[in-house]
Each structure stands twice: as structure tokens, then as C-alpha cells.
Amino acid sequence: MLFPTANAIHFISQDVDDYTADVVVPVDVAAQTITSVAMDPINGVIYYATLDTFGIHRVNLTGENQTSILDEHPTAITSLEVDYATQNVYFVDSYENRLEVASTDGRRRRVLHDGLVSPTGLALDPVSLTMFYIDTGDIDREESPKIYSAAMDGSSPEAIVTGHPLNHPLYIAVDNGDGVDGLIYWTDVGTNMVYCASLLGEEPRAIAGFGPLDIGSVVHGVAFFGGHVFFTDSGLRKIYESTTILMDKSVYMEGFNYLSDIKIVETRKGHIGGCLNTSRCDYLCLPNPNVPSKQTCACATGIEPLPDGSCPEVPNTFLLVAGQNSLRRIALDNPSGEYVDIPLYDSLDGYGVNAVDYLLTARGEGYIYFAEMKTPSGVAGDNVWRSRIRRQCMFEQNGDGSEIIHEEDTGIIEDIAVDWTTGNVYFTLNAVGNSRADSHVAMVSGRGAGNKVTLVNTTLHKPRGIALHPLQNTMFWTDFGDPPKVETARMNGMSRTPIITRGQMPFSNLLHPNDVIVDLNTDLVYFCDGGAGIIGATTFLGNAGEIIVAVDDNPDLRRSQPTKLFIRKPWSLTMRHFSPSDRDDDPETEEAELFWSDPEFHLMSSVSLVTTGRSTTGIEKTHLRNILERTTLYKPLAVQFVSIDGHKPGEITGLTTMPCSTHSCEYLCLNINATHFHCLCPDSVPNCRPRTEPTERPTRLTPTTPPSETLPQHPPLRNQATRAPPHLLPRRPRFHTLLNRNEPAGQGQKSDGQGGQTMKQTGNQEEEGSLQDLGVGGDVLVVAFVLFAVFVVGILYLSHRARRKYDQVDRATMILGSETPLRPLPSPHRAPPILTSALPLLHSSHLPNSHEEKQPFSSPHETV
């Protein structure tokens, strides 16, 4: 017999008549926090669940070697059982409202039944390979209580007891009866009675208890052994014994505080077939009486075994969701069609997770980056908002390997974005309630070396979402201040331009732009507005926009179910692209699914998009749906789609083939284009001199991370024949896109933010820096000069033959005397005369193997 009290676990052998032979196992827990106990008699280990530490722990019979196997996430485990034949722990989590199983070391976990209303008790029958568990339901939600039976792998769940006499069932026990006339027993705190029924749930009846009118009595745990039923009464502080035939009871033991669960552990009962030492399961072996092998090889939740029976470390496609105090993973391609969230990390020190991104590399490395924030405590005048950025291995669970790479005490890090070509992390900081700093956009090293560089810090009010397009050297961010807007700039903070402002059609009612993302396949920008309740799309220049989703898209649903709207106040966006194998292989058509979160109304929704061409007018939306109508997520803030196979353009080779892979920068490196990189200087190093340099393209892959950071190789690309699908191939940035930013007159290379400090040259130095910034090297300038000289000679020759020497010489002098610095061109089809002849050469020589169609250029001086 095993039962917990205030801060100890009692172990009493039933093989002797003297029940006073009580072995007390002390445990280090707070009083009245042990909710359930179980035992592995083969290894002499006791498992127990607690409320004060939110987890499952184990200890040997002497009270030594107390360890935790699951304690990193907020839970409320009300019941647990140990299957010592398979070394698995089954437990009911009433916080997550689910039934789970885990290995006894806590490393492998799987959800067996999700979506329960309010689960409590659990019992295993290792003979029939069946488990029984209770769901007390919810009167307010009109969910009645139920008792379920299912195979021990979670398959074939069935409600075997419903309705009367269930009121508020709590704990459950099972007597297999050696396969004949077995019974289940349960306690009901609503009626304060003990009941029994057959293993099929038939003929339920009361066998013991005090009834609801007995003041002071509270029936809790129940166990069965040798024709006798034992149950605890926490109100009367006693353990009672009763028979199954007569409704009598007698005091078995008394004088114990905080009684709850009680178990009878029998070593003689074991599995009939199923998971024994001969099991070859890679992850978890779970008993199943309904298959010939009597076992099921199971992987983690959302992951299915490969043909060889092995289990991938992570799902192929999943969502990373930051839910205020936790980071979770939701597999999208679950064959069952269910969406189950698995905790990856929880903030237990007052911080809350509010932003997330990730990084995959060619070496099989996978990292999750996420931001945390902490509100001021108010103690002793503490009014400081604190934030930090963490990095965690993507292939780990339970928060293993998490490390802090950057911290702030000047405001809230609202959002983060990882440059997958360098590994640098960009973030927006809202300096709320702080007079020591301004709101800004900045970047830090993704490896934890600090080296913060402020890029934009003027005329920013409340920056929030941020997105990157590294192959086009472009970043976007939202600002929900006054006035609200969406802005763009180069990734060093220069050439800043608003692309969406209040009053701009069709976003005239822009109120609270929260997040922004870039569709790398169509070069469209998507943003969400929590104030207006819309999701919109526009081009990089903001000259064409369309509202994709709005509250009015669901008028019928809005009238009938106002609390289940798919979009109310969208907060975060992410996008999933489908490979050509999942759609019609039309190069002009892109199919995607757009996800968004709504923390205020606890929603996570999506819409399917079919985009034709590269215009917002070609977007067709279908299948608007709510992914998680009933979820355990609390305020799902940020959401990020991850595909292990379908990578971002250049993601896998970016860290090894882009210019920064061979850079000599002392601090931070930024890829300007395919041939040039820029060395940035941290804010904390005042004497640093930034520079821009060309580099030769590496002829072989060059690792950019030390061996100590190397992770296991992630799975190869699926659906890969002789080459990757076209939409997955690394796309080279268009040269005219890099040059032609269509900036407002007067901005040029001037930066409104701190990022301008990375170009502190003046005069010719500024011009040279601009040329280098665009990827124009010295060899190209020599070619341009020669072409220019030939052009001048041609002008003189034509002038002589036309007898208009004075006019032609005057025009040639004007051109030769022009020293206009190279600036982003006003349009893709009009270039300054000094570059008219050089641009085609630059395009072909500096961007080899470009798949983009060359754009025609014209000049007002071509008639000369």
C-alpha cells in the first residue's frame, strides 16, 4: 500500500498482517502538494506528482536520490501510474486537459488523449493492456462527466460510464479479476461515495461512503486488493476498508493529514505479450491489445515513425507559438488531423515569451530564437521594463540548451527576425516608460557575443513587428505610434522610406499595425492591424495594396458566434508555402497558408492564398478557418511557421556561400549583395571604423560556426529528385531591385537612424562608400571610364561631321564635369548617363548565373 501525506510518502507491505509496519519515505515538498503516487517495485522507485513544483519526481525507498523527471512546465498532474514493464509513466494533466505518457527519465513524451474538459483519475490494467481515466466535465459548458477506457497506446478511446451516478468523479482503480468479472472503482466527491462497475462500464452501483450530508467527510483516493476496497477521507484524516458485497466500512488507519491518492502495487501482475525486452521501438513502446504484436511503436506528439521505425527529432512542418509565459510547438501534418501543442520552454522567473524566429543551416544546425519581457515589479520604485533574447536548440525539448544572447533594460523587445545569411538577429525595441533611451531598430550577433548595433532610432514611436529580405538587403517594420505606419530600409538602416501610412488607400483607417512579414516567393509584404481588425498586402514600394482578411469576411459567423470570430485583433503573422508536389505545377501560381494569432480572444486562425504573378490583385483567398477553437494556450502572441524540408531561398547555403562567410569583420558582418559585405561597428565600440569590401565567392562550403556548436544533421530535403523544386531554390537578388529603391527626393543615402553612423565618410569617401554599398567595385569603374571615354570621342566625331561643334563640345563638357554620386535610381528604366553603358556589364559580371530577366535601361542622353 502506498499513499502520501503532508510531506512524506508511506509504504506499507500487505504481505504481513501487521499494518503498523509503516515505512515513511520523506520527500522535499511543501505541505499538501502531493496529488498522486505510483511505484516501480522492480527497481524500488516511487514516483509522485506535486503542485508546488509543477511536475513529476522520483525517489527510492530510503528517501535518497530525489530527482525530477518533468518539472519545467506549469502543470497540474492529478493522477499518475507507472508501467514498470515498459518503463513508462502515464499521467493526467488537468492544466493542459490531456492524458500523456513519458519515459521514466522524462526525455520522451507523447499525448494520448487531448481536448479533455477536466481530467482527474487514471488507472492501468497491465493484464488486458487497457487504461481507465476520468473526465469530470464542466457544468457551465454543459459537458457531463465521463469515465473512459482505451488501449495503453491511447487508441480506441471509449466513454464507458456516462450520466447517473456520475457527479464529480475524482480517483479510479481497477481489479482485472484475472480476466473474469473484473471491476473498476471510483470515488465521487460530489456524492461523497465510492462506486464500482464492470470493465465495460455496466451496472454501476455504490459500495461505500458517507453521502453528501456527512459534514467533514471528503472521500478522495481508492484502491483494491484481495477482495477489499480501500479509500481515503481527507476530511476525517482516515483510511477506510470495505468489501465489494456489503456496504460496510471500517477504519483501516487514521491520524494522517492531507490524504489524497492511495495505491496497491502488485509485482505478480505483468504484461501478456506486448512491449518487453524484445521491443525494437526507437522512441516509445506502448502496449496495444488490438494488434497482433500487442505493441505500438510511437514517436513524439505530431511525429510519425519513418518506414524503418525510427522517429525524426522534430515534425516536418510545425508552428512555433509564443504564449505569454511559454514557447510551444504545434505539428501541422499530424495524420490524426489534431493540433496538439507541445511545450518547449517556459518562463518561470517572471518573464513572458512574446516573439519567436528560427535558423536552419547546411550543417544540420537548428536554433530557435525567442524574446522575453518582464514588467516592472513596482518594488522600491522599480519601473524598469526588462527584455532578453534567448537561443535554444531546435532539436531539444524541455528547455535544454537555452541560453541568453542579449539583454535590455530600456524597454520591450517587441519582435525579432533572424538574418539566415549571417545568423544576426534584428529586433525592435519599444522604450516604454524609459527616458534613458529612444525606441529603435537594432541588430545583435546570433551567437551570443552581444555587439549590438543600433540601426534606426529617430522619429520612431512604438516599433513592433520586423521582417527581413536578406537577398534584397531590405528590412520592414511596423510602428503603431502616432502616426501609425509600415516602413522599409536597407538592412544597415539606410534609405528609410514609409510604404504604408494612415490615409493611404485601401488602408485609410490604419490604427495599430502589429506585425509584418515578407512573402519571399512573390515579393509581397503582409501586415496585420489589431486596431482595424484587418490583414493587408502590398508591394515593396507600397504602391499597390489590398485587404486580405477583415472582420467583415465572416458576417454570418459574426452574428451567430461573436466569440468565435476568426479575426478580431490580429497580433502576429506567419506564412506557409506549399511545394509543387502539393499543388498544380504552375510557375506563375503560388499556394500558401497565412496564419495569425489573436491573444485577446485566444484565437489562432489561417486562410489559404493562391497568388498569381507578383501583384496583390492576383491574390485569391479560400478556406478561412480557426485552427484552435479550444486550446490550452494562454494569449498566443507570436506565431512562426517552420518547415524542415521547405527552406527559405538561400537559407541552407546562406551561411556558407554568401560574402560574410569569408569576411574579416571584427564584430558584425552584413551581406550587401552577392559579392560585397559590410562590417558594422557595435554601439559600445566608439573607435571602430566600419568598412565595405568585395569578396570572392567561396569555391567550397566554409563552416562559419565552431565545432562545439554543431548539431546533428537534420533530415535531407524530401520531394527532391535531380534538383530542388523551383520555389525552394536559392534566388539571387535582382540587381535592379538592389539599386532602384525609388526613394523620395532628397533622401539618397542619408539615414534617419543610428545606422547612418556606419558611413561616416565625407566627400569622395561618401561617394566611394555608396558605390561599394551597391556592389560596384574598382574594376567596374575602370570599364565604365573607358566606355565613357569612347562615348565622348564618338560625340566629338559626330559633332565635327554635323558642323555643330560648339553645341556638342558644350554638352560633352557638361557630362565630363558631372560628379553626381551614385544613388538608387529613380526607376528601373531610367539611369544617370554615367551608368547607362555600364549597367548591363555590371549586371552580367557581378551576378553570374542570375535567373532573373535583365531589365531594359534607357537614358535621356541616348539621342546624343
Automatic annotation (TrEMBL):
InterPro entries named among the record's database cross-references: 6-blade_b-propeller_TolB-like, Cueball_EGF_LRP_Nidogen, LDLR_classB_rpt
UniProt KW Transport keyword: no
Region Disordered, residue ranges: 690-771, 845-864
Protein name (Swiss-Prot/TrEMBL): Low-density lipoprotein receptor-related protein 4
Bias kind Basic and acidic residues: ranges: 690-699
LDL-receptor class B repeats by residue range: 87-128
Biased composition regions of type Low complexity, renumbered to the chain: 700-712
Keyword entries, A-Z: Lipoprotein, Membrane, Receptor, Transmembrane, Transmembrane helix
Transmembrane segments: 780-798
Listed SMART domains: LY
Domain of life: Eukaryota
